[in-house]
Structure formats: C-alpha cells, structure tokens
Amino acid sequence: MMRSVAGGLRRLLAAQHVPFRASSSASRAMSTTGQEPSFYQAVEIYFDEASALTKHNERLLDDIKEVDSLISFTFSIEGDKMDDQGRRVLTKIKAYRAQHSHHRLPCKGGIRYSPDVDADEVKALASLMTWKCAVVDVPFGGGKGGVVIDPRKMSERELEKVTRAYTLQLIRHNYIGPGVDVPAPDMGTGAREMAWIIDTYRGIRPDDVSGQGAVTGKPLEMGGIAGRTEATGLGVYFGLRDLCGHPEIMEKVGLPTGTKDKRIVVQGFGNVGYHTALFFQQRGGAHVIAIAERDGYIYNENGIDIPKLKQYFDANGSIMGFPAAESIVSCPRSLLLGDSCLTALLAVLRYSAAFHQCIAPLTHKHAHPYTSNAANGPLTPTADTILNSRGIVIVPDLYLNAGGVVVSYFEWLKNLSNVRFGRLNRRFDESRGQKIVDILKQTGVQITAEEENRIVRGASERDLAESGLEDTMSDSLVQILRQQAELEKETKTNVSLRVAAFVLAINKVANVRYKRGLVNPASSAI
Ligand SMILES: NC(=O)C1=CN([C@@H]2O[C@H](COP(=O)(O)OP(=O)(O)OC[C@H]3O[C@@H](n4cnc5c(N)ncnc54)[C@H](OP(=O)(O)O)[C@@H]3O)[C@@H](O)[C@H]2O)C=CC1
Ligand SMILES: O=C(O)CCC(=O)C(=O)O
User: What are the residue positions of the site described as Important for catalysis (predicted)?
Assistant: First the structure.
C-alpha cells in the first residue's frame, strides 16, 4: 500500500488550526501558513514526506514516528553567588532526556547545554538520532538530552555540579546505562562533561562490568576512544569529499570533481565547525573563505589558516579581530550571501525561522551549489523548499554529521570488551609486515624507507577508528544514492538526498520491527 503524506500532515495542521491543502510537498503546504512548524513538527513532516514513498503499513509508520519516552525534571544546585546572609544561592535547573526509539537498545545521543533547550527540541533531536543511526548502520535507538542552562555564564565548578546532578537524575529514572541509554557530547558539552558523567555513574554502579560504556565521548583516560573529538568533523569531510568525487553529481552543479581549491563558508566554529574546516583545508586542499560565529564573521578570499585561527580563538574567546582576515560585525547569517562557494556548511545554526527569513530568500541561485547540514536540523521545511527549488543540493544532517555517533559506537564496543582496539594484533601485524619486507628485500625488490614503514606499521586505535568511520561514511553515501536512484525511477521525479536518507532509515527501522515479529507486513494491523 502506498501511504500518503496526508494523514500525518493533516493532523499536524489541524492541531495548528490550519486548513489542510493537499500538496506534493509537505513543506510547501506548511509554508502557505506563513508560520514555521516547530522543530519536532518539522522532523515529523520530513518523516511523513519520506514515509509516503515507502510501502509500509500506516500504523507501523505512525508507531515508529512517535517518541517512545520523554522525561523532564528539575533539580537545584548551589551556585557560586552568595546571598546577603552568606549562603550560596540555589539555582533551579530544568532538564530533559528523550528516547525516540526502543526498537534497538541502548538509545544513543548527545546532551545539549543551552538556554533554548525545550521538550520540543529534545524530541526532535532524539528522533533525528534514530534515523541517523539507521542510515549509518549503528545498531542503536535514538536519544537526546538537554539541560536548560547557558554554559558560558557558569563557572567550571557550577557546570560540574549541574552535570553530576543531571546524571544522578538519569540514574534514578533508569535513563542511563550501557544497555539502556548512552549519552555523548552535543552543543555546549564535550569530553570534560562526559568525564563527570562517567565518574558519577561509576560511583553509583561500581560493579557494572560494562559501566564505562554508559557514556561516550569521554577523555581517553576515562575509557574514551582516540579520534572521537574530531569524529563528527572528519565524518562531514569524508561525506562531502565522496559527494564531490562523483562526476555526474558535480556535473549537475557545474563544478569539477574533488575538494581541491574549492571554496567553502562555515557557520559555527565549535567542535564540528572547527574540525570540518580543518580537514577541508588540510586533507581536502580547500579554501575556507569565511567563518561565522555568534558575534560576527571573518572573511579572507584566499582562505583562512584554520590552526592559526583556532589558536587565536582559544586565546581570545572570539574569532573577531583575527589579524589574517577581515572581521565583519553583523548578522552572521549574512555571510551566506557572499561569493560563489562550493558549500555553505551549517555547523551550529539551530532550527529557526530566522534561516528562512535571513538566508533562504536571498541566497543567489547557484551561489553555493551545496548547503551542508553539519548541525542538527538547521533548516526549516520552508528554507529547505526554497533552497531545493533553486537547485541547491542539501546534504542532510542525518547522514552528514553521523561521524560522531559512528565513533561513539566504536567507543562503546571498546568499553564492552574492556580492551583498546589494536592491542591484541598490532605487534603481530607488524612482525608479519616485517617478514614480508625482509622477503621482498632478499629477492632484490627495492623498497624505500617510507614504503617499508607503510607495510610494517600496525594500526593504532586512532587508525582503526578513522578507517571504520571512513568506510561507514562512504558506504552509507552509496546506500543513499542508490535509494535516491531507485525512488527517482519509481516516482519519475527528482528526490532529494534528505528524502532518500529518510526512506533508507525508515525501511531499516521498519524491517527490524517486522523481524522482531511484532508486526505482520502483510496485515493492515500492527
Ligand atoms: N559534537 C558532536 O559530536 C556533534 C554535534 N552535532 C551538531 O553540530 C552542531 C554544533 O555542535 P558542536 O560543534 O558540538 O557545538 P559547540 O558547542 O562545540 O560549538 C558551537 C559553536 O557555535 C557558536 N555559535 C553559537 N551560536 C552561534 C550563531 N548563532 N552563529 C554562529 N556561531 C554560533 C558557539 O559559540 P558560543 O560558545 O559563544 O555559544 C560555539 O563556538 C549542533 O547542531 C550539534 O547538535 C551533530 C553531531 C555530533
Ligand atoms: O556520539 C553520539 O552518541 C551522539 C552524537 C550526537 O548527539 C549527534 O549525532 O547528534
């Protein structure tokens, strides 16, 4: 049975008291209201649009679309400030954790610290995690956590208190554990917070032999994996590099293949933005000509030196004033209107109607043939529709930023087995390589020192994590492009990468549900 997008969309519009108008595109119908849906509604719209192209039972689709569970709680911490009686002021904090899908356990997804976090955002992000994990064959359900604080306004001591108190709440609600739900870094959090989380968890559950796998993105000393910090940015680079390597795709956008000498603009210079820019420059030979941050953007048409900028940023807390570029204080989003580039890389922009108002109407046709969603959900359905209608290829977040969760998966595997990758076989591989070199030399083959090193060197944990990440990103892109081609053949219309990635993910999740025996695919009932 071909399912129409109408059901979900009609319900959504009804909830907003908007008359339903059948349309080939859910997002186009929504834009007629002049009002953007919420982030979670947008993810539902994307889901509906894609699921209409699948052959799954409607009730199963409705079921796998829903967020399975969401908890919210408040807790208090004693802050640094004193009241007039010399007591530490108590600060009340609201927090969430959503588990979108229990079709596979544990649930997996980062924790966001931001004053703008709310239930809608956490549900949307958890839902995206399910589809993301499915696209890259990471066997987890989706989850996401959020704490409503502004980490820039808190001391390290306060942040530690918040993180430990949040973890205690997760333990109390059974929302954390290596087989239940495994958090990781997201906006506003990093390895430091993950260390506090695992330390708190281990303190309460010291006899959990797999306990180190209760959170990923930890520092190495706390059971982390080499390469997790840069994994999301590296995955973005691998994904875009592969896309740029397809002659027929690049021909469509009128550019030569490869990343060399391509110009890109990056919005956000945090973990994801910085590492992506770094890899584009160092490995891809591309020029990062502009970078936007909260307080403005910097521009150098010959390319910005990313390691130098990072040093400057760490020392000054801002990219503004970086000597080797022009600093422009304005709406950072306006940089996306600039020169013609390969891609506008959105590495922080959160879901907001502002994108629709600021960028989408103004972006020139072909100014940037790609808009790459390194951030989660930066585009509203209307912005998405506008960019699509201009022929701009949107590289979807549920594929492009999956590098983080892929390497988190490797970290989790490492924690379950309690052994560093490569520890058992590295020396053995090296001695075998050495024997091969010796035999080649004995038979008179000339080998340079560099060649010898490449044959002999055994893989480190970092090498293995990176190679697993590269393989996953490449393989998943092949799957998405194959899905896109199949859908285009079936529907005889253009199908976006986002729709293709969602269809791929929905098929995988639905198939798990069928195989588990909870649903009969031939029946109309679940
Ligand atoms: N970290 C990860 O492994 C993963 C992250 N993601 C997604 O990537 C995105 C970025 O995450 P991440 O890099 O980890 O976050 P970070 O917190 O490390 O970095 C965000 C950066 O962007 C800056 N920023 C905030 N608001 C704006 C703005 N309006 N314009 C420009 N810059 C701004 C922040 O500045 P300031 O410090 O002043 O706030 C900070 O420097 C998020 O959508 C996240 O969900 C996706 C997959 C994995
Ligand atoms: O590393 C992880 O487990 C999840 C990262 C994340 O939150 C994301 O991909 O959005």
Answer: 186
Alpha carbon of residue 472 to chain centroid? 14
Neighbour tally for 402: CB within 10 Å: 29
CA distance 335 to 352: 17
Q: Which of 128, 237, 271, 405 to mutate to test the pocket of ligand 1 (most atoms within 8 A of CB)?
A: 271
Q: Which of 144, 218, 262, 508 is catalytic?
A: 144
Closest-CA residue to 274 (of 297, 307, 227, 235) = 307
ipTM of this predicted structure: 0.96
What percentage of residues in the chain have a pLDDT greater than 70? 86
* Strands 181-185 and 326-328, bridge-based pairing: unpaired
pLDDT tens string 342-367 = 777 777 777 776 666 556 555 554 45
The SS3 assignment for 182 reads strand
Distances from the Cα of 295 to the Cαs of 348, 374, 386, in angstroms? 13, 20, 27
The arithmetic mean of pLDDT across residues 245-257, rounded, is 88
Cis peptide before 106 (omega within 30 of 0): yes
Q: Say whether 408 counts as a known binding-site residue.
A: yes
334 assigned ligand-binding residue: no
pLDDT category at 515 given cuts 50, 70, 90 is confident
Are residues 395 and 416 in contact, defined by beta-carbon separation less than 8 angstroms? no
**pLDDT tens per residue across span 420-444:** 999 999 999 999 999 999 999 999 9
| Averaged pLDDT for residues 167-195 | 97
Note the CATH architecture for domain 68-223.
3-Layer(aba) Sandwich (3.40)
Give domain limits for the chain: 1-66+498-526, 68-223, 230-400, 423-458
In this prediction, residue 520 carries a pLDDT of 57
Asked if 99 contacts 145 with a C-beta cutoff of 8 angstroms, the reply is: no
278-299 per-position pLDDT tens digit: 999 999 999 999 898 888 889 8
Domain at 230-400: CATH code: 3.40.50.720
The yes-or-no answer to whether 68-223 and 230-400 have a common fold is yes
Please say whether the beta carbons of 267 and 338 come within 8 A. no
CA-nearest of 184, 186, 193, 182 to 158 is: 193
Residue 109's H or E segment, with its range, is strand 107-113
Look at residue 269 in the predicted model and tell me its pLDDT: 93
H/E/C letters for each residue in 234-290?
A: HHHHHHHHHHHCCHHHHHHHCCCCCCCCCEEEEECCCHHHHHHHHHHHHCCCCEEEE
Q: Which ligand is nearest to the CA of 129?
A: 2
